[in-house]
Backbone:
């Protein structure tokens, strides 16, 4: 994303990479959560594996894993982009698309289609 | 006047952390929209920025406390399974809801949606906090970034609203019960 084109310098004077990293990783985290939940619902072995805390059941592993994915991708993007300008428009479009997919996939009638 | 410890935790989770989050989130939307708009009459002052940072830190804390108390304190009481042969399901909210076609959807739709969508709220607001801390008043010069952050915060508000609505309704139809009884006020 950062290398696909040379974006104009951010008007703020601060590279936009940190903002893009935060947005994109939040979108990935929002999308990862229902994906983990759907897989746990369909694959018994994965569901069992997602039980990090027995009283809470698979929800504990699903949410913890999504948070790990979110924070890990945030850390990676931040490390790579914090001092540079990236294609912010592309990062925003991707993050909002993943957020929308994430919201839709949490809705049980849609999640049950998979 | 008495309340059980489980009902009290349910109250702290829902009305305390969750309810406050919903209220405060609407304020965050207004602040982000008003202070960092390119057409704002005056740029955000240092005091404004400090206020918004503290506000968003409190909001993120409320969001995380709401989902963590929900998932790790209240939800285990909700989903606990009865022993074989138990007929009275009043202490087993999930099973109580599923026992009747008229209430089953509160679990299969309501709780199934709530338990996942709620987590989008703290994730989104933590991201918004990070962006505000990083860019401060410069966010005014990055309208695309500001608008995207606002979208996440609005989704966070909606997610919390969905979770709050279903949480209240589920608690109305099948409240978590039990635990220690706390005496609040003695009657005359």
Residues:
């Amino acid at each position: 994303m950062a290398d696909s084109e040379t974006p104009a310098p951010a008007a703020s004077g601060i590279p936009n990479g940190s903002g893009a990293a935060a947005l994109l990783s939040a979108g990935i985290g929002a999308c990862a959560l229902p994906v983990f939940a759907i897989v746990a619902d369909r694959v018994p072995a994965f569901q069992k594996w997602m039980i990090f805390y027995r009283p809470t059941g698979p929800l504990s592993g699903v949410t913890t894993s999504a948070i790990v994915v979110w924070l890990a991708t945030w850390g990676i993007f931040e490390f790579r982009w914090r001092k540079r300008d990236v294609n912010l428009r592309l990062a925003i479009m991707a993050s909002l698309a993943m957020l929308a997919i994430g919201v839709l996939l949490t809705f049980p009638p849609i999640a049950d289609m998979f | 006047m008495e309340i059980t410890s489980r009902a009290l935790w349910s109250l702290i989770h829902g009305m305390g952390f969750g309810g406050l989050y919903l209220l405060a989130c609407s304020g965050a939307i207004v602040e982000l929209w008003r202070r960092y708009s390119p057409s704002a009459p005056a740029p955000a002052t240092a005091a404004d920025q400090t206020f918004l940072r503290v506000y968003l830190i409190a909001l993120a804390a409320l969001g995380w406390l709401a989902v963590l108390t929900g998932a790790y304190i209240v939800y285990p009481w909700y989903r606990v399974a009865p022993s074989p042969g138990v007929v009275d399901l009043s202490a087993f909210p999930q099973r109580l809801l599923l026992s009747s076609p008229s209430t089953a959807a509160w679990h299969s739709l309501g709780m199934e949606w709530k338990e996942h969508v709620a987590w989008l709220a703290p994730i989104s607001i933590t991201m918004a906090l990070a962006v505000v801390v990083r860019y401060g008043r410069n966010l005014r010069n990055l309208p695309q970034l500001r608008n995207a952050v606002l979208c996440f915060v609005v989704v966070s508000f909606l997610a919390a609203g969905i979770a709050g609505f279903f949480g209240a309704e589920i608690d109305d139809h099948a409240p978590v019960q039990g635990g220690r009884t706390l005496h609040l006020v003695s009657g005359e």
